[in-house]
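Dissemination and training. As part of the outreach component of the grant, students in the summer workshop were shown how a complex can be specified as a set of sequence lines and then modelled as a single object. The example used during the hands-on session is reproduced here so that future cohorts can follow it. Participants entered these lines:
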Amino acid sequence: ETGVTQSPTHLIKTRGQQVTLRCSSQSGHNTVSWYQQALGQGPQFIFQYYREEENGRGNFPPRFSGLQFPNYSSELNVNALELDDSALYLCACSLASTDTQYFGPGTRLTVL
Amino acid sequence: GENVEQHPSTLSVQEGDSAVIKCTYSDSASNYFPWYKQELGKGPQLIIDIRSNVGEKKDQRIAVTLNKTAKHFSLHITETQPEDSAVYFCAASGDTGRRALTFGSGTRLQVQP
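and obtained this result:
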């Protein structure tokens, strides 16, 4: 158990809708990274949050946005959903002073 | 940016045999190399990691080696067991402060009883 939780477990949306995914860590990890994992592929870095600010972003459009709260929990928001957004969304928590990232179980998003 | 290639994509071994998975990376600035195990329906679980100032690290049946000159690193699992069956991912990072992980494409390991 990594102590990282994500909600919801599964989600079905239609094209054009908006979605919010949530992540929290029980162990006080102050840095949260979000990854998208398409079926049969490795996770791809979306962005990272530290001290409630975005601290680096991968090759994802602005309709992917996020928030981090004072208790270090985080949200990933995706607007104007596209079919290709169907994937497993993973959050990973870490301490800013270390490399080690602990992943949650993920949220499976299906866009119809 | 960083690019990580991983081989093989699938690997089938008999219980008790060894398994080796290899990765190469492109960015010489990368300095942290974790390995994750992902079981069906679960998130990636860190199984071992190595930093660029170390050439080899071992944890019971699992070992990782790093060749900085050749820019490749490998995962070695000895005495494989059926519960080792999963998808394994290598990753690399080097962005100080951000530490975004770049993952390989994964290796599906099947251990036959």
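Chain B has no helices and eleven strands. Students were then asked to discuss how this feature might be tested experimentally.
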